[in-house]
Amino acid sequence: MPRPSRCRRVCAEPIFKTFGADTNETISPITLFVDEYEVIRLVDYEKRTHEQCAEQMQISRTTVTEIYEKARFKLADAIVNGKKLVISGGHYKTCQGMAQRNCPGRCRWRRGNQCQMKNTFEGANIMKIAIPVKNENIYQHFGMASVFKIYTVENNQITATTMEETNGRGHGAMLDVLLANAVNCVICGGIGDGAIQALNQADIKLYAGISGIADDAVTSLMAGTLQSDMQAACSKHQHAHQGQCAHGDCGQHHGNCHCDCK
């Protein structure tokens, strides 16, 4: 008996699944399996090698080559013969960012690209706002926050709020929580350069140097009156390290500190 095929890991379900006009209803459409789509995405779009693709999808290199050749023929058949192309089915499991810490590839969820695409094409006018909080006030050190309050805003109205605990200190742990919740905007007090760069790379809008009640800050944002104060953000970040780590200069203790200013 043939050995059962291994389930292929794909980053996420494709957002666009149907291509081509219905020029002739008598011609059956071409069905490109989701795992075939993933191989095309990794090899042709991200320019990964077959070995790298195999490692990311958790299958063998020879399997990647077989899938790639079948997928390329299907694409050629659709283009040359004017057939409708539908992406559906296959033997796969979706990652949805759950394996982003150990993913050998350039994880779209960690960079925020997949979340941004989903918000753009599936979520009409939806914003996810995250604020580090303590007793409903904005916590003044982003990298040391123990909980985020996350607001879902649709058509300029708050439709839901949740509280999400972080799994550790530092902007890396914070970013994992933000991406897992498809956050596209952060309001905070003090924040370090490393965290600012990480949020920029993930295409997450930042309003820093903000203090007061978290709910009031979201109301101001929706009203268009909330403005970042980066000078205040840097001052609050430095003050937090002086209080937490007992050093005036964060550069003196990076060997032992879990801060987000690296």
UniProtKB/TrEMBL annotation:
Which keywords has UniProt assigned to this entry?
Nitrogen fixation
One of the Pfam families matching this protein, by short name = Nitro_FeMo-Co
* Coiled-coil parts of chain: none
The record, for InterPro entries, names: Di-Nase_FeMo-co_biosynth, DiNase_FeMo-co_biosyn_sf, MTH1175_dom, RNA_pol_sigma_r3/r4-like, UPF0251, WH-like_DNA-bd_sf
Which protein family is it in?
Answer: Belongs to the UPF0251 family.
Q: Which residues form the Dinitrogenase iron-molybdenum cofactor biosynthesis domain?
A: 135-221
**Alphabetized PANTHER family for the sequence:** PTHR37478, UPF0251 PROTEIN TK0562
Read off the Gene3D superfamilies from this record.
Answer: Dinitrogenase iron-molybdenum cofactor biosynthesis domain, Winged helix-like DNA-binding domain superfamily/Winged helix DNA-binding domain
Stated name of the protein: DUF134 domain-containing protein
Has UniProt tagged this entry with the keyword Membrane? no
